[in-house]
Protein: Arginine biosynthesis bifunctional protein ArgJ
Organism: Microbacterium caowuchunii
Amino acid sequence: MTVTAPAGFDAAGVAVGLKSTGKPDVALVVNRGPLKVGAAVFTSNRAKANPIIWSQQAIKDGVVEAIVLNSGGANCFTGSFGFQTAHQTAEKAATILGVSPGDVLVCSTGLIGTGDEVFRAKVLQGVEASAAALSPEGGQDAAHAIMTTDSVAKTSVVAGEGWTIGAMAKGAGMLAPGLATMLVVITTDAVLDSATADAHLRAATRVSFDRLDSDGCMSTNDQVTLMASGASGVTPDAVAFRSALIDVCDDLARQLQGDAEGASHDITIRVEHALTEDDAVEVGRSIARNNLFKAAIFGNDPNWGRVLAAIGTTQAEFDPYDVDVWMNGVRVCTAGGPDRPREDVDLTPRATDLLVDLRVGDASATIRTNDLTHDYVHENSAYSS
Amino acid sequence: MTVTAPAGFDAAGVAVGLKSTGKPDVALVVNRGPLKVGAAVFTSNRAKANPIIWSQQAIKDGVVEAIVLNSGGANCFTGSFGFQTAHQTAEKAATILGVSPGDVLVCSTGLIGTGDEVFRAKVLQGVEASAAALSPEGGQDAAHAIMTTDSVAKTSVVAGEGWTIGAMAKGAGMLAPGLATMLVVITTDAVLDSATADAHLRAATRVSFDRLDSDGCMSTNDQVTLMASGASGVTPDAVAFRSALIDVCDDLARQLQGDAEGASHDITIRVEHALTEDDAVEVGRSIARNNLFKAAIFGNDPNWGRVLAAIGTTQAEFDPYDVDVWMNGVRVCTAGGPDRPREDVDLTPRATDLLVDLRVGDASATIRTNDLTHDYVHENSAYSS
């Protein structure tokens, strides 16, 4: 049910030929209320796609009636024509739904530079077709329509005390969210005001999508949107709601990691006993972005020297010669020297645990990444062809 | 002739079994004077190998009598035993040469974590054997003894007005120098004091090795050392000497790039019309470290969207929607939109030129990198086996 699991939401996913495969490529999610609360976080990449530029304006009043999403073209670096396309997309949906265009968000994903007249015509056609197909059971269709190189649709639902959160996500590459991630739509029937929705969303994305760094490449089109319909009539306990929202975001982040292009290992990097959480994140991210470490994991090689070489490039507080490194439960390095033999580490499972103990404080963080594989290179050298 | 091309230097390269292949693995370069001037720059990685820690102390007085280099083991994260090994290496060479141990530098390269009793015994044996083999014609042997995954020895010689500069380098992976690069030894018979040598060396490495970023991974063992013997009796013109030194460093940087592990393209990223040189370097480096761009080049795909997505993550001064991107002479993007069709770009040659015109100022910089290939992944997943 995904985004239509909570009460008050209709959705649809239709195929209009943006994808050469003929698979669904335009999704529409509509909030039927009574509340029309929205919050969103966007890529921190300065190179922003036209739908991002549109949506950043549209979200300012905290009101969202609907969101249109398309795959098969990013509408990024497509000039003023591309911005007009995003604008017309919102207007088209608003006219059909009888709402204000400024309350319709737009998301696009696909190849950068794609957004010509043909693209525009298909997207507008998709708005019409998806509006005609709207249904309280349309969540699964919508989740399929936003897929690009994803091998599976990513969805998540969590039920609270009288309220529900539902969500869908797409993303398989260019996965290094800056304040958001790929395209994510989260819905809830809880009663929230827009400031509370915004605070919950930022708190949840900070410790979930922001801690996913599959390939160090930040997208131009990332957007995470939360819509609240209030249809349950229940104002949730703030702590319980935030916790449930984090669960949904973390679940989607793991699904994104598990479906990352070409990956053969899902690597969970746990940094413990850092002085600050920021230090822990910086150290974890330096490992997640180290190609030599990622290639070693692909080769089932517990090359802990590459971990230390990576974290040595950070400004975090620690002594490189007093760090412990564990791989899949085996301490391979202690106090700046070798510990248990490499042969003791079994890296054949897809799930890979790296633990780095900085031994200076009480803060910790977990960063999720993937290995660097032949298939990653292959898929990303052939993407636009 | 490499490091023995200038007058006043002897060198040797010998095999002592540090490499499983039986190839030469210990090099010694000795300055016979009359001057014993030395300058060095080191990796800015906080995770530093033991020979780096030793050499950073030894260089402080600006006097260098000799340098010992070994391949087949990095002596990094090998604890206090490893530091003692570096110390004993310098003492052994000093005793044989009749100089102070504090004037002998040590460099190591190979697998991090390698540096046990067997390693120490072989290195010390290598010092003895190479000292016995010292010769004014030993430069080529030394250049071969420092190779690891290098497919060719890297050397460079430039002649000035009455003086000569010679050099050798090794490096094929973990190539993202922070203030230095892999192992480089540069010799000259010019008359220089140590402050002048240091200034020339820093100026030259800043625009050569520091602009090479093959895989974004900074080594723990990088060191570039300049030794001046004064044997020519000629005090060089400062501008001419610095220019020649830059030529030598740039020549070696290109050789390192051309021999980078698994690479199939040598990519020259030229950033023009930046507001500052720092901005140009930041923008160039963001592209050089973008795996999606590098994989696209491997696939001969002129995917300029990935260039814009990469530079959008920087803090440099420019408008992402007013940038021109050229690939091998074809302008594929102008003012935030597509220009000439992708099909016009021929990316089949190994030499690849990317030009990014930021259109805001007069500063520029060139960053050299490589593509991301199947072979890179293969070589780096199997390195330690």
Observations:
- Chain B touches chain A through 63 residues (CB under 8 Å).
- Residues 43 and 222 of chain B are 5 Å apart (CA to CA).
- The domain at 266-381 of chain B is CATH 3.10.20.340 (Ubiquitin-like (UB roll)).
- The radius of gyration of chain B is 21 Å.
